[in-house]
Amino acid sequence: MASEQSTSRSADMELGRFLRARRTQTSPEQVGLTVGTGLRRTPGLRREELATLSGISIDYYVRLERGKETRPSPAVLDALARALQLDEAEHQHLRELAALAARYAAEPTPPPSRTVRPHLKLLLETMRPNPAYIVSRSMDLLAWNPGGLALYAGLTDWPATQRNLARYLFLHPTARTLFPDWDYQVRGCVARLRALAGTDPDAADLTGLVGELLLKSPDFATLWERYEVAGRKKIHKTFHHPQVGVLTLSGLGMHLEDTPGQRFGVYAADPGTPDHDAMLLLDMTSPRPAEQPAPQAGRQERRQP
Q1: What is the Cα 158 distance to its own chain's centre?
Q2: Phi, psi of 288 (to 5 degrees)
Q3: Which ranges constitute the DSSP H helices of 85-158?
Q4: pLDDT by residue (tens digit) across 277-303?
Q5: How many helices (H) and strands (E) does the chain have?
Q6: Which of 25, 57, 238, 275 has the most C-beta neighbours closer than 10 Å?
Q7: Please, is 102 exposed, middle or buried when counting C-beta atoms within 10 Å of its C-beta (0-12, 13-18, 19+)?
């Protein structure tokens, strides 16, 4: 019972955090308000401005932001979304947070699985020379083919249990040179983690990773505070790879059925192009996968002497 109350309270506060983040990043000019010449102490919209734009009382909005009002109606949520000019992903995230805060989410989220089924590992091999891998919802690398691991240059420096694509983007020194659009990549990465953590705020697989990155990466901490929840939008990704040069690949990601929290990712290039040749070279020169991460989250792997 105490655990349920704690989770519910976390959901209440998460709704308020999201509204506050979006409010402080929405300027009066964006929503058509005229700003006077006086000094504004509040970044973005004031609470009373957002309440007025949404057609709700200031007191009610303040209670929402402070986590003291947990049952906003769909009409109120839609009005807030219009006033804040939320996109589709942000609007849906707002609805999900409100459902959790109101304690009427349809079903509890099943625990994420870290065990990769044998036929999926076989599928990774059949995808060669296309780089392919399977990640957990918190971006732990669970299984891969040679190109899927080698594409993220330097990731083999870390033991298998530490190979996480979010950790790589923010903490590995090669990541900033591998991606010419590193700023775009990390923004999308944090948005995906933010969306997950918002709807499952006490999940151990997410809180551990987020806590580590907040502590070790100021860039991550800054983006985390922005509370963006946009989904994947970019289809093509360019890599400045130290072994095979520059290659631009088309990426595809999909959730795996009957495997909670796992996602399959694969990259491809048109045959006969320099990008395809570089992809072939990467596959041929990469060692076959020998080590696999431990099936339980948090299990430590011993380093070989």
Answers
A1: 21
A2: -65, 150
A3: 88-101, 118-126, 146-150
A4: 999 999 999 876 555 554 444 434 333
A5: 13, 5
A6: 275
A7: middle
